[in-house]
Specification:
Helix content: 25-40%
Order of helices and strands: EEHEHEHEHEHEHH
Distance between the termini: 37 Å
Strand content: 15-25%
Structural class: alpha/beta
Strand order of the largest sheet: 1-2-7-6-3-4-5
Length: 196
């Protein structure tokens, strides 16, 4: 591990890293290795895809929890549809959304680990705080942070929306399957001014 407290472990992103971590946990009532990856996907980017693909290799089942309170640009249903298109080749991944607390959602789904992505050190402070809160609510829930691959450290949904607004080629940023949907939505919004 890179850093560890009683409740949170920061690990280097390496092959089988999540699996190695899960093997160190005391037995918890999970159905196999069930994980929950949490994201807003507004829109779904190649960075999101990388995180899901990496976590899915280590989990028997991975739930992608699309945050339902984020309404900007794309509805929850639109964002879930984008994620489903983007992960259609990953059979152990299920896309879901809920308005309940993440710790409660994970418990209901039998997940013993939350997977979060970190692009930069600035992401860590807020995510670390949330990990501690989730563990306080659900003692059987651990959080694993996966660092982004170097080609995705700069990539954010906000940046992609800005690029799409100015008709920049999106194939380097979004999975090909969702580009037409994103372009169509941005075109519809273009009349209203710059993206948020």
């Amino acid at each position: 591990p890179i850093a560890q407290t009683k409740d949170v472990l920061l690990m280097e992103n390496k092959k089988n890293g999540l699996q190695e971590f899960l093997a160190t946990l005391s037995p918890v009532p999970c159905d196999g290795t069930v994980g929950a990856a949490v994201m807003n996907c507004n829109p779904f980017t190649k960075g999101h895809r990388y995180l899901i693909e990496t976590a899915a290799k280590e989990c028997d089942r991975l739930y992608v929890f699309v945050l339902s309170e984020d309404k900007s640009y794309f509805s929850t249903e639109d964002r879930m549809a984008m994620v489903q298109l983007g992960v259609a080749d990953l059979p152990n991944v299920e896309v879901d959304s809920s308005s309940e607390l993440l710790a409660d959602y994970a418990k209901r789904r039998g997940s013993c680990v939350i997977v979060k992505g970190l692009r930069a050190g600035s992401d860590f402070e807020n995510e670390f705080q949330m990990a501690l809160i989730n563990h306080k609510i659900n003692q059987e829930l651990d959080t694993v942070f996966l660092t982004a691959e170097h080609q995705f450290t700069y990539l954010s949904s906000s940046m992609v929306k800005e690029l799409a607004f100015y008709n920049v080629e999106l194939s380097g940023f979004l999975p090909d399957a969702i580009i037409p949907d994103v372009q169509k939505r941005i075109y519809e919004l273009r009349q209203g001014g710059n993206p948020k």
